[in-house]
Amino acid sequence: MTATRTKLVIRNAKPKDIAAIRPLYEKVYGVADGYTVDQIAGQINKFPDGQFVAEFEGQIVGHCVTFVINSGTALSQHTWNEITGGGFAARHDPEGDMLYGMDVIVDSEFRRLRIGQRFYKVRQDLCQWLELKGIVFGGRMPGYQRHQKEFPNPADYIEAVQASKLRDPVLSFQLRQGFEVVGVLKNYMPEDLESCGHATQMFWRNPLEQETIKAKPSLGDTSLPERVRVATVQFQMRRINAIDEFEQQVEYFVDIASDYRADFVAFPELFTLQLLSLEGKPLGPADAIARISEYTPRFIAFMERLAVSYNINIIGGSHPSRMEDGDIHNVAYIFLRDGSVHTQQKLHPTPSERSWWNIKGGEGNSVIHTDCGPIGVMICYDSEFPEIARHLVDQGALILFVPFCTDERRGYLRVRYCSQARAVENQCYVVMSGVVGNLPNVENMDIHYAESCILTPSDFPFSRDGIAADAAPNTETVAIADLSLSDLLTARQSGAVQNLKDRRFDLYRVVWK
């Protein structure tokens, strides 16, 4: 008996597929259109069961995006941007009763395989598995532009297609899949010129629907752990005589966090500048940055080894690094216990960083996929810009890490108050990690103030003051807390306030370039 390998597979999309999905949209829609990498990550992180790819002989040739929403919203007038949360599936509601079809694309070279039909079938299977009322989506009608003069009212054009007087390549296909037209969505997608900006409001009724919908599967990604233990290090800057002393200090805290079986240990911003105390005399700004950049390869190799050997995910604070173009960026390095290394550049250098070290602002702000769910990093000053946290949470981040370095209490409180606001408005956890102590012979790094802490949303499942754990001011120590991901996801759906669900996508949204 012989067997051959399956050629065509419809399966759930995974984060590792994003690199192949994005070029597919460029091919189908054009380079300037389609989803960004961050949007695709947000879709997968919000509702992994509802994202599918078609894989033909190992090549991804189709993509299907869905999410769950309440039927009242799905069956009312809406635009594509409003219903999808700007393309992130940000309005996914695990307690909803309707599946919403957000997008289906197929590589034109593989359309003979009826991949679109397969995607519609897998959506129907998902709808029945979740025991939802049905599937709704806004359908294109690309033949309408040619017949607009004949049918000024799009409803009349739809009626003509339904009566087989006209054929529309998309609408006719959707009708054959068992969908019915329940309305016209005016100005659904203004950039869709072939449909004159409008869409058909399509509905497929679940034939297995029961009057009483049974309990839904668990909130969010079933692969998420119930609880995540997080340790934040309040790191003391002190003069050292050898690089081994710095590494011993770092390894000590990683060892402590590992002994407590923490999933994450977070270090502060610019804590590696302690290495400049090795110099015999204070260095000028340019010389200091050039010197600290020399430590980058050793720092990365050392922290990567710690993450793997201690089986812990390390938020490695931040370290000034020289880029290939010669610019200096303030870069956070994230070392996961699987051995992978990720980076996040500081987007907003402070005035002192710009003037002292000529540090430039970075670009991009993407979630990092870990074995404890998606996380995000905002370096110090970045926490004071709400758009950054919102962008990360739209991608699915549940925990945001804020490595910081502040010289006195007022600077610290700016970061603290803003981080607490980010936790409340995004219903997420925020972990702050700061430096204390003094470095008299290091320019612009002489004094520090910190009260590192682990912050929560302000609601009943969490601690009364929205603080899961905190450190005493200006003391070298570690703060540890267990963070319930199920409490977080439940609060987003049914908390006293529901900031994420209640956003007015019809009025505003964050657009990331």
Automatic annotation (TrEMBL):
Gene3D superfamilies: 3.40.630.30, Carbon-nitrogen hydrolase. Residues 8-207 form the N-acetyltransferase domain. Keywords: Hydrolase. Residues 228-485 form the CN hydrolase domain. The keyword Translocase does not apply. It holds the Pfam family CN_hydrolase. The keyword Cytoplasm does not apply. SUPFAM superfamilies: Acyl-CoA N-acyltransferases (Nat), Carbon-nitrogen hydrolase. GO terms for molecular function: acyltransferase activity, transferring groups other than amino-acyl groups; hydrolase activity. PANTHER family: HYDROLASE YHCX, NITRILASE-RELATED. This is Carbon-nitrogen family hydrolase. It comes from Hyphomonas hirschiana VP5.
